[in-house]
Design brief:
Elements: E1 19-30, E2 33-45, E3 50-54, H1 61-68, E4 76-81, E5 84-85, H2 91-101, E6 102-106, H3 117-128, H4 132-145, H5 161-173, E7 179-183, H6 191-206, E8 210-214, H7 218-221, E9 226-231, E10 234-235, H8 238-249
Parallel strand pairs: 3-8, 3-9, 6-7, 7-8
Antiparallel strand pairs: 1-2, 1-4, 4-5, 9-10
Helix pairs in contact: 3-4, 3-5, 4-5, 5-6
Length: 255
């Protein structure tokens, strides 16, 4: 699924990137301390990509994902979404894009505790004002896809972590978003459940989903088609990333 925005300025054969970031920086100001979370990031994501972002704790991975997901804005640089500058969007336009085109998966699942599994997955569709019969079809389809259709009436606290994350994946895909953004989706799971969630993401990608995933688990990072290494808010060149990996292997703690 695309956002159906065509960019007439593109030359023949050079399709518009779904996402294009140019010289994007993010500075946080707290108590007069400046944190340069991201510096001059260049990033392109095309439809159907499976991109993984890796790097030590604090290097800016979550910040980058929240910019990509329109949860926050860059301090500098340009972000084009389907060829359109995100900076020009109003707050409500951003909310609509988040709801219709972006599916989020978080490390801590972030399900709403006093809603059932069914209601959690239904919520993004409710916000859209979709009729309830259509919502039901979509919710059940998404829950079946993640193997959780037998738990519709359960509350998150009655589920294991692996099950909660599967429900969170259903919530992320129920609206058929253009891109899935996953921030350490296996970070709170044991390896069996982590594998199951990665298996789901791989299946979704095989069916055409565009995925951008943050992970510090090298086993999972390498399952993606493309790996970007962040360090101190900067995207490392492949050569520097290799050096960093060798340093890590030799026991040097880069984090
Ligand atoms: P990662 O996800 O790679 O662990 P983050 O993107 O969360 O890293 O953070 C990058 C840097 O930006 C860190 O130094 C962090 O402390 C800082 N940071 C992140 N969010 C904020 C915020 N809202 N206010 C101030 N500093 C922040
Ligand atoms: Mg993070």
């Amino acid at each position: 699924m695309t956002m159906s925005v065509t960019n007439g300025a593109n030359g023949a054969g050079d399709a518009a990137a779904m996402i294009e970031m140019t010289d994007v920086s993010k500075v946080f100001l707290t108590d007069e301390i400046e944190t340069h979370a991201l510096s001059d990031v260049q990033l392109r994501i095309d439809e159907g990509d499976f991109l993984s972002i890796a790097g030590p704790s604090g290097c800016g991975k979550s910040t980058l994902l929240s910019l990509l997901g329109l949860l926050d804005s860059p301090t500098a640089g340009e972000y084009l979404l389907d060829g359109n500058p995100v900076a020009d969007l109003s707050g409500s336009q951003r909310a609509t894009i988040r709801n219709r085109h972006i599916g989020f998966i978080f490390q801590a699942f972030n399900l709403i505790g006093d809603l059932t599994v069914y209601e959690n997955v239904e919520l993004p569709l409710t916000y859209r004002g979709m009729p309830s019969a259509e919502r039901r079809t979509r919710v059940m389809e998404a829950l079946e896809r993640v193997g959780m259709s037998h738990r519709t009436k359960h509350y998150p606290s009655q589920l294991s972590g692996g099950q909660q994350q599967r429900v969170a994946v259903a919530r992320a895909v129920v609206g058929k978003p253009s891109i899935l953004l996953a921030d350490e989706p296996t970070g709170n799971l044991d390896s069996k459940n982590g594998h199951a969630v990665m298996g789901l993401l791989n299946e979704l990608h095989a069916d055409g989903a565009t995925i951008c995933m943050v992970t510090h688990d090298p086993r999972y990072a390498h399952q993606a088609e493309r790996l970007i290494n962040l360090f101190d808010g900067q995207v490392l060149s492949p050569e520097d990333a290799k050096k960093m990996a060798e340093m890590e292997e030799s026991g040097f703690d880069v984090a």
